Amino acid sequence: MESLVDWFMDVMVIGGAVVGFGLIVGLIVTSLRVGKSQKAANLARRSLDSFLTSSHTFAEFSAGGAALAEAVRAAVTATEADCGFIMLFDRDHPGRLVTEAVYSVDDNDSFPTETLLGEGLAGTVAHSGQLAHCVRKDQANDSFRELPVGTKSAVCVPIRNRLVNEQEIRTNDVAGVILLVSKSSHTIFQGKHLELISAMGALMSMAVTSHWIGVHHRKTLLNTLILMSTTLEARDRYMTGRSQRLCELAMHLGRKFGLSDEALDELRLGMLLQDIGSIKVPDAVLHKTGKLTQEEFDLLMQHTTFGYELCRRLMMPRGVLTIVRNHHEKLDGTGYPDGLKGDQMPLALRIAALTIAFDAMASPRAFRTALDLHEILTQLNLGAGSQFDAVVVQTLRESVDDPEFQRIYPTLINRTTINSEAAA
Fold this sequence. Notes:
- This protein has 15 helices and 6 strands.
- The longest helix has 58 residues, at 2-59.
- β1 and β2 form a beta hairpin.
- Helix content is 57%, strand content 10%.
- α5 (242-256) packs antiparallel against α6 (261-273), α10 crosses α11 (347-362) and α11 runs antiparallel to α12.
- The protein has helices at residues 2-59, 65-79, 120-128, 192-234, 242-256, 261-273, 283-286, 294-301, 303-313, 318-326, 347-362, 373-383, 390-399, 403-408, 410-423, and strands at residues 83-90, 93-104, 114-116, 132-135, 153-160, 174-182.
- By secondary structure, the protein is an alpha+beta fold.
- The chain is elongated.
């Protein structure tokens, strides 16, 4: 009997151990499932957060380098990729895509700088207009030749611009591509990830389209303003070609001072538009050969503020607005309309003010002939340090022998040579 009881107790112990083990296994499995579910939930949450962040980024999209870099960073983060890049069509070479922005988690990846339409993964998607997903199965896969070292899988999504129908459009409405790379041994670009990537591609397409609408409208308005400025010059035979000369001379001096490309662009545009406000000044005042009355001079001076308000409403860059409003300022504060003085005048404005004065003296007027180069430089020297920046004056003096300067003012050089020979 005791042996039976002992056997029964042994069975109970063993059974309890088995049940206990089963419970432990069950708990572990449940724990793993919960952990996996929690991990999936955390991943989904991170993806959603990144998607919302990228949505905000695309809403603020301006197609500049910083905005594009932030957009590709958001896309890489949302999809848990390792790196990615954005390529857009080169408007000067319609069959070529150029890399505009890149992002890498470890900052050690190299990316293609350009590719041709129909070549590689990016070129193929740009040509077809369809999403493409590739997995590396062998080292000879041509689709991976352009991609960073260690790429295991990649997905490329077209960026569309449905409003462009001019020469820069290819065989479809694709404006570029966004390409994401994974170096993981398993493919992450599937299922929900592909849906997310497609959605981000659609968002970026909307952002690019919106941006290019703005660019197109801005370009149209700018061309209209430049045409208006040119038309203003046509009202006075002494002013023909003035804006172009001002622009070229100012750019020549700006390069000598090492101005950035952005500053040079603003200087160029400012010089083309600096007299746009004259459209509100009567011809009787603009073309008067005699001395202006104080009332007429006050009206003439308002062309600076008229032009400024016109360009401000079109959201021109600050550098352009400064030149349009303040190109008649003087270093000693006696200019108009704001009486800027000394350091209140940025370098680009000092270049603009000197350029305008130089061209005025180099060009004939109804009441006088044009001055020769020696006379102009003498007048500029007299104004150096008071009306003009002395360093800018000296830079101009050193530029008169430059081929570029002589191309801009060929008649001035010829006239000065003739006068010198006559004096001799």
